[in-house]
Amino acid sequence: MKKKKHHKLLLLSVVAWLLLYFIFFYQNTNSNLISFSSFTHSTQVRIRPIYDPHVENRTTTKQLKEKDPHHSRAIVLPERPKNLNLHNIWAVKVVLGLWLGVASSDMLNSYLQKTKKKYTDINQYNVTYTRHLKSETNQKKLLCQLKNEPLRTLTGNEDPFASLGWQKLVPRQPLEQATGGPYKTCAVVSSAGAILKSSLGREIDSHDAVLRFNAAPTEGYGNDVGNKTTIRIINSQIMSDPHHMFADSHLYKNITLVAWDPSPYSGNLEKWYKRPDQDLFTAFTEHRKKYPSQPLYILHPDYLWNLWNILQRNTEENIQPNPPSSGFI
After folding, report:
1. What is the tens place of the pLDDT at every residue in 226-282?
2. Where are the transmembrane segments (predicted)?
3. How far apart are alpha carbons 260 and 241 in whole angstroms?
């Protein structure tokens, strides 16, 4: 009982400290609408500010009682401080964005914004996308767009693979048929450390199909991540790096494997075959000859970049010009 009381007192103390901190913080922040103009434009959030009472065209009492159309509470910004500085402006932008449930790169400080821009400008895969932002696509519509993108894998009939005899290497059954579906339920198991000590193993294994990524282990972690694997999506590094023992490890046996490798945005398969990001082609050829009955597919680069196009088309900011990760696929 004493321990519980002690924990409650400690929790109350922390909450009280946080409240005092935010009260002090808001007393030293800026409510000038101009400070937020670039932020509100980038996030498309409607904000009704309260100006200084001596400024003309100030917000009326009726306007203050109006609710923001996207939120259940009215947006009331803090009073304007006398000693305005850039740090306060940036801090308010961050707090306000988190409070409204929105985020953008404008919330980063200038150093991080420059770093992000440099990283984006590298453009390793020569992406030439011309953006055409769609107006306010919600999460449900975006998910439908991604689901409606036809799944494509290499068939072996494309050049240069056709001239290399890949028609005999690529599985005859399409990926959709090789997995044994359709399934009523499936579990997509993340590779995050947060799943440790979750005791979700039994629930995961109860699903008709279980999808895992790259070299995420199951042995020794069955109580948390389960032991069943139906499909494993792997990147080209798993196949090319000897450290992962792709050809012999039990991790990649008796399941359906779906591999992928970043390619040029242009979709030139000849260039991709000659200069892959990681040499998955040699490993694919050897594995198919050694284990011809095991389904092993390579995702078509156009499919990966089409997913990227959908993301960029529905994102106001420029995202990294790299194909989506294994987890996203």
Report:
1. 999 999 999 999 999 999 999 999 999 999 999 999 999 998 999 999 999 999 999
2. 9-27
3. 14
Q: To 10 degrees, what angle do helices 301-313 and 139-147 make? A: 160
List the domain range (segments joined by +) for residue 68: 2-121
pLDDT tens digits along 213-224: 999 999 999 999
Place of tokens 């100006």: 51
Look at residues 204, 286, 276 and name the one whose alpha carbon lies nearest to residue 252. Answer: 286
Is 126 inside a domain boundary? no
Query: Is residue 254 in a domain?
Result: yes
Q: Rounded to 5 degrees, what are φ and ψ at 70? A: -100, 0
Strand order in 296-298's β-sheet? 186-188, 209-213, 231-235, 256-260, 296-298
Cα-trace Rg, the chain: 26
Task: Give me the number of domains the chain comprises.
Answer: 2
Distances from the Cα of 26 to the Cαs of 34, 282, 291, in angstroms?
A: 18, 60, 64
The domain spanning residue 256 has which CATH number?
A: 3.90.1480.20
The Cα–Cα gap between 273 and 120 comes to: 25
Would 28 be classed as within a structural domain?
yes
Q: Are residues 248 and 309 in the same domain?
A: yes
Query: pLDDT at position 162, please?
Result: 96
Q: What is the model's pTM?
A: 0.67
Residues 292 and 252 in one domain: yes
- Distance (Å, whole) CA 213 – CA 232: 5
